[in-house]
Write a structure and sequence with these properties.
InterPro entries: DGR2-like_dom, Pectin_Meth_Modulator. This is DUF642 domain-containing protein. Pfam families: DUF642 (PF04862). It comes from Lotus japonicus (Lotus corniculatus var. japonicus). The strands form seven sheets. Strands 1, 5, 8, 10, 13 and 15 form a six-stranded antiparallel beta sheet that branches. Strands 16-18-19-28-21-24 form a six-stranded antiparallel beta sheet, with no helix packed on it. The protein has a five-stranded antiparallel beta sheet with strand order 4-9-14-11-12. The chain has two domains: 185 residues, Galactose-binding domain-like (Jelly Rolls); 149 residues, Galactose-binding domain-like (Jelly Rolls, Sandwich). With 367 residues, the protein is mainly beta. It is built from one helix and 28 strands. Strand 26 and strand 27 form a beta hairpin. The structure holds 2-acetamido-2-deoxy-beta-D-glucopyranose (2 copies). One 2-acetamido-2-deoxy-beta-D-glucopyranose binds next to loops.
């Protein structure tokens, strides 16, 4: 009796210790321990697909109905997309998985998750890293083979307990988010300079996916800029904005950019320090990611009382234009906002929203 009680605790400590070691010596981005769920559970702790017991999923603690899934067609006619490796977990009604990781107090991080909905239209993934918590709606508007999302948080101590929870209650108790891969990235946010008042102006600091994601990383809406998964920027819209990397997309400058994937519902913003009545020059680039997104595009930018419209005709070749304007600040802080005027879908996948790319935003006072 004593042994069975002590054993899970001992194992939990062991897992936690090895997680610390792995995260200590890592590059800015890393999988969580068994972050792609490819480490198989002991067959004794699994009944059909259902995991039995709090420590049945290696390196994780589970609660409630959690299934261990092999991607592809399922009994019952469903298809579960598993893009990162072969295995995934599904969180049933009110189920959760958690892992304690080592972090640096005060540091900004993003969790990068391969997550898709499985049955209901309105599945939600509740992510918590106390004291922060947030609900991320899962939609399959963006790609057929599952989406990758990023969620930002700021560490408040040297350990953080990451919990992924399905707050939903569906008629079928197994229905819920499918988690395919979970990684973390530590941020080193760039500061504004005299030559450019914009923080992280070229999107060089962002949630770069370590897994083989070719669809970009969705930045869910309404995340506060203090904890943004895209440091310095606010995802202001109702729908997600997509972070794209140079490895998988055509990006005008450097390693990262954003794709405005949901028309006027997909805006990003930043508040910069300005001097009232001073005139500023704003320069930025608009293009396409060479991802099958064609058509007449338009990016609208707002600064103080001014609106700038930038038309761009995409033929899907990864071209871009650089434009510049002047605006006069009317307050000590100025909000810069960017969105796409139109909706677009990919020519190779009509279910996938796409749009114009925004990169390298420069603002400086005109002498
Ligand atoms: C990513 O893709 C490469 C090449 O297709 C493959 O060798 C590698 O194993 C993949 N990595 C993961 C984590 O799936
Ligand atoms: C803004 O600055 C850039 C770089 O110095 C310059 O090329 C451009 O002409 C300026 N734009 C305006 C509207 O003054």
């Amino acid at each position: 009796m004593v042994v069975t009680l002590v054993c899970p605790l001992f194992l939990a400590l062991l897992f936690a210790t090895s997680a610390f070691a792995a995260l200590q010596s890592r590059s800015p981005e890393a999988y969580l321990q068994n972050g792609n769920f490819e480490e198989l559970p002991n067959p004794r702790f699994i009944k059909k697909t259902k995991l039995i017991g709090k420590y049945s999923l290696p390196k994780w603690e589970i609660n409630g109905l959690v299934e261990y899934i092999t991607g592809g067609p399922q009994s019952g006619g469903m298809f579960f997309p598993v893009t990162h490796g072969v295995h995934a977990v599904r969180l049933g009604n009110e189920a959760s998985i958690s892992q304690t990781i080592k972090v640096k107090p005060g540091q900004l991080y993003a969790l990068i998750l391969g997550a898709s909905r499985t049955c209901a239209q309105d599945e939600v993934l509740r992510i918590s890293v106390p004291p922060q918590t947030g609900d991320v709606p899962l939609q399959t508007l963006y790609s057929l083979d599952g989406d990758v999302i990023a969620w930002g948080f700021k560490a408040t101590s040297n350990v953080a307990k990451v919990t992924l929870h399905n707050p939903g209650v569906q008629e079928d108790p197994t229905c819920g988010p499918l988690l395919d891969a979970i990684a973390i990235r530590e941020f080193y946010p760039p500061m504004p300079t005299r030559a450019n008042l914009v923080k992280n102006p070229s999107f060089e600091e962002g949630p770069f996916p370590i897994f083989n994601s070719t669809n970009g990383v969705l930045l869910p809406p309404q995340q506060q800029d203090r904890f943004s998964p895209l440091p310095g920027w606010i995802i202001e819209s109702l729908k997600a904005v997509k972070f794209i990397d140079a490895k998988h997309f055509n990006v005008p400058f450097g390693l990262g950019a954003v794709e405005l994937v949901a028309g006027r519902e997909s805006a990003i913003a930043q508040i910069i320090r300005t001097e009232t009545n001073k005139v500023y020059n704003i320069t930025f680039s608009v293009g396409d990611a060479k991802n099958g997104c064609h058509g007449s595009m338009m990016v609208e930018a707002f600064a103080a009382k001014d609106t700038f419209k930038v038309p761009f005709k995409s033929v899907g070749k990864g071209k871009f234009v650089t434009v510049s304007f002047k605006f006069k600040a009317i307050a000590p802080r100025t909000r810069l906002t960017f969105y796409s005027s139109y909706y677009h879908t990919r020519t190779d996948d009509f279910g996938s929203l796409c749009g114009p790319v925004l990169d390298r935003v420069i603002v400086f006072p005109v002498a």
